[in-house]
Inverse folding.
């Protein structure tokens, strides 16, 4: 009796929000394994489009970035906004992002195919050779600039990679003299001179 009561208390499925049941792949009385989906559900509070970006694209996008979403079967492109961004690229290099469509978007349904164009706000950046970076970790790294004839270590934030160059979101002022050659052997305060 106690076992039956325990099972009864753990057999009710409660939706987290108002919405629509899309599919019920499990049949009544069927035994399913742990973690097996038994109901596919879509919340009714808006639509989201999950996309996967390259590492470089993921670095350039932030929560709040505006998007233009073209949905198959919908005549006009819809406006959207990035509402969720993974903390980093996945094991295969893809960066997962979710774009929420504006609440006024009507006539949509789950499972439609969409084409998303993200429009990050342009930001002033410095572009440096890849070899100028030191101790890169995610989007954080250091560069060395020349200040009064000595190396000065400056923290930077990477915006995106483009081949052998790197665009910096944050870093030294534009026009700074950045050390490029021999960076692994440079340390803060060491005397340097420009190559002739």
């Amino acid at each position: 009796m106690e076992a039956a009561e325990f099972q009864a208390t753990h057999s009710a499925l409660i939706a987290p929000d108002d919405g629509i049941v899309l599919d019920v792949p499990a049949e009544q009385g069927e035994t399913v394994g742990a973690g097996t989906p038994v109901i596919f559900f879509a919340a009714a509070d808006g639509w989201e489009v999950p996309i996967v970006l390259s590492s470089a694209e993921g670095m350039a996008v932030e929560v709040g970035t505006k998007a233009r979403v073209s949905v198959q079967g919908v005549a006009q492109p819809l406006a959207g906004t990035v509402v969720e961004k993974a903390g980093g690229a996945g094991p295969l290099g893809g960066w997962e992002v979710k774009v929420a469509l504006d609440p006024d978007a009507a006539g949509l349904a789950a499972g439609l195919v969409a084409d998303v164009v993200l429009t990050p706000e342009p930001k002033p950046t410095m572009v440096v050779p890849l070899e100028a970076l030191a101790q890169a970790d995610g989007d954080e790294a250091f560069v060395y600039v020349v200040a009064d004839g000595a190396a000065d270590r400056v923290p930077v934030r990477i915006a995106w990679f483009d081949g052998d160059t790197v665009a910096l979101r944050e870093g030294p002022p534009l026009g700074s003299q950045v050390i490029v050659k021999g960076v692994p052997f440079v340390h803060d305060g060491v005397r340097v001179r420009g190559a002739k």
